[in-house]
Amino acid sequence: MSTSIEQSLHGISIYLIGMMGVGKTTIGKLLAHQLNYRFFDTDVLIERVTQQSIPEIFAESGEDNFRELEHQVLQEISVETKSVIATGGGIVERQINWSYLQQGLIIWLDVEVEVLKQRLAEDQNRPLADKLELLLQKRSSLYAQADLRLKIAANQTPEAIVEQILELIPTVIKSESEFSHS
Ligand SMILES: Nc1ncnc2c1ncn2[C@@H]1O[C@H](COP(=O)(O)OP(=O)(O)OP(=O)(O)O)[C@@H](O)[C@H]1O
Ligand SMILES: O=C(O)C1=C[C@@H](O)[C@@H](O)[C@H](O)C1
Ligand SMILES: [Mg+2]
């Protein structure tokens, strides 16, 4: 279905960034399927490496340790081509991470904070979920460095979002010289 988009991507990976709960994991899986890409999720990789859940990592070794693990996982995954990578909401906070993200096409999924609050109200797996406004304030200018910003309506389905991404990808394909090579 998306053969021409696949061709125009030249195997370049796609990084989904944005606040917790915007749908990076949900949309990433669907998008990867449509593109015949593999799917990775930095949060899942961290849990696999540590054999701990994210709340356990935060509680037992702190956010700084989590950010270090996140950085290491990103560095390792950045060698992969033809992949959609759902990142953790805070991956943008470390400047060094941008040199890896910029090896791919970076898409910012942006959803109103009120919608995020509703989605995450019952969620016990996101240690920073009670600080959404503060985090968004801190991160907006960082997320804005993405190649593409997708403003998602409250009632937009994951499938419709993927369709929109597929339509927009050709408008933001970078030329070879624009990718950072670390
Ligand atoms: N477009 C959507 N419409 C309705 N619900 C959605 C949509 N996208 C995601 N969700 C729901 O919102 C919740 C959070 O989605 P998801 O886990 O994909 O977010 P995330 O961006 O990966 O979050 P995190 O950064 O914490 O990993 C899930 O329960 C998911 O089913
Ligand atoms: O926004 C954040 O800082 C986070 C988002 C999640 O994806 C996880 O990476 C973790 O819960 C922290
Ligand atoms: Mg996720």
How would you describe what is shown here?
- This protein has a single domain (3-169), classed as Rossmann fold (3-Layer(aba) Sandwich).
- Helices cover 52% and strands 13% of the residues.
- The chain contains eight helices and five strands; from the N terminus they run H-E-H-E-H-H-E-H-E-H-H-E-H.
- The protein has helices at 3-9, 24-35, 42-50, 54-77, 95-101, 113-120, 132-143, 158-172; strands spanning 14-17, 38-41, 83-86, 105-111, 148-152.
- Helix 2 crosses helix 8 (158-172) and helix 3 packs across helix 4.
And the CATH topology?
Answer: Rossmann fold
- DSSP helical segment count: 8
**CATH architecture descriptor:** 3-Layer(aba) Sandwich
**First-to-last CA distance:** 33 Å
Task: Name the helix and strand elements from N-terminus to C-terminus, one letter apiece.
Answer: HEHEHHEHEHHEH
| Shape, principal axes of CA atoms | globular
Q: Which structural category do the helix and sheet elements fall into?
A: alpha/beta
Question: Would you state the CATH class?
Answer: Alpha Beta
Largest sheet report: 5 strands, parallel
By CATH's scheme, which homologous superfamily applies?
P-loop containing nucleotide triphosphate hydrolases
Trace the largest sheet across and list its strands: 2-3-1-4-5
Helix content: 40-55%
Number of domains: 1
**Could you tell me the strand content as a percent range?**
5-15%
Low-confidence stretches: none
The ligands bound in this entry are: adenosine-5'-triphosphate, (3R,4S,5R)-3,4,5-trihydroxycyclohex-1-ENE-1-carboxylic acid, magnesium ion
Average the pLDDT over all residues and give the rounded result: 94
